[in-house]
Every structure is written in structure tokens, then in C-alpha cells.
Amino acid sequence: MFDFVKDNVKVSIIIPMYNTKNLLSETIESVFSQTYKNWEMIIVDDCSTDGSYEYAMTFSKKDQRIRVFKLDCNSGPGAATKYGFEKAKGEIIAFLDSDDLWMPVKLERQIKFMGDHHYEFTCTDYEQINEKGEHIGRTIYCKGQADYKAVLRTCPVGSSTVMITSDLLRKVEIPTIRKNNDYSLWLRILKVYPYVYGMQETLMQYRIWPQSISYNKLKKVKYSWKVFREYEGFSVMISVFLILEWAFIKIMKIK
After folding, report:
1. What is the mean pLDDT, run by run of 10 residues, along the chain of 255 residues?
2. Quick one: 113 exposed, middle or buried, by C-beta within 10 A (0-12, 13-18, 19+)?
């Protein structure tokens, strides 16, 4: 186990990207603004059609810490994340969607949190913003610790808040399901590691806009069903129960 702070460990930031050219600059700038500087950025383009790949390449030419790759065919964020991890050189892996933003102290605070407590799988609180970057008045709070059952039922884990040791991530196969791949990945990790530990501080901004996965609830239900039935092997009855429970929790939150 690393003494993360003392050893100044490298963080590999994996950014799957698809048609987010107009928002990518803000995301990358939020990494440039980090108080912790020992990082590499791995951008994996999933065959964008809006010039995102070419635009990302302009950043890699300015900063050698940024590497940009492109998948051979459009395969979804799961495949892009898996490819990015194969290229990663850091002792810690951080995930960042190409339309989300980090607070400047995100890496520094979370690395210290992991090192102080010897945690290998962590997340933080985050707040939601709209396409213009405006706050929409909602903060999602993580749990101090959540096991497999807790994540299965409520998934209190924001993808772009997660940091995990590369050693732990190597113990599982990163799922390549097109949607909810992050949810499926957390469940796999929690079968080999007891908890995801939550740092209860808002360190990420999650953007809600028409292209984001969370914007389309019906698609989210479809792929949650796929996770339950195909990836977790649950019966139809249990899968239906989990879907209804998820829907009820969402409705209650709206109210």
C-alpha cells in the first residue's frame, strides 16, 4: 500500500469522450487547475462526429501529460474506459466524464483521504449543473462507506468522483456495457473489496444535459435491467424489485 502523499503518486485520469467538443475545454481546464500536479490525462475518443478528437489533440500538443486515443469503432464509454486503463501508468486511477468538472482541490484532498485511511476505493459528494454550467440546486451526498448491497440498491457513487488504486482495479474485468458501465464496475469491485469509502465533501460538478446518460431515464432503466439480469445474474422477480425500488427512490427525491 502506498503512502500516497509522501510518495507523490501519479494519478491517471481516464476521460471517455463522445461528441463533447463544446464542453471539453472546461473539463480539461478543471484538471489544469488542480493543486495536485502529478497526473496524466488519458482521453479516449469513442468515434466522435463533432471534431472532439481533433480538438482534444490540440491539448495534447500543449501538455505532454495528456495522451489522446481513438477507438476503431463506436463502442460506448465502458470500452473507452477499459482501453484507457490499459494505457494508464499511475498508481491511482481517477475517472472523469468529458462534460463534468472537478473542484481545484479534488485530487489533493482525495489522495490525502485515501492515504490517511488506507482506502483503495473512494468517492465524494457532488453537485449538479446544467449545460451552461449553472447550479440547479441539488447536491448528491455519498455514504461514509457503502458495501455491495448498498450500492446495488441506491448507487451513491458519482462516476467522476471515483478514485481507486490501479492494483485493485486490475483485480476485475471492466465491463463494456454501453450504459451503466460504471454502476456495473462498482458492483464488480465490491465483490473483491468490502466498501467504497465516501469523502463527504463536494469536489465534483455533474452536468445534466440532453446527451448525458442520466438525462434519459428510460434508457437508464433498460441498462439497469441488463446489469441485473445479464451481469449480476438476478432472477426476473429480483430485477423487477430493484427497478421499482430505484424508481421509487428517484420519485421521492424529486418530491
Report:
1. 73 97 97 98 97 97 97 95 97 97 98 96 96 86 94 89 98 90 94 97 90 57 74 80 71 46
2. buried
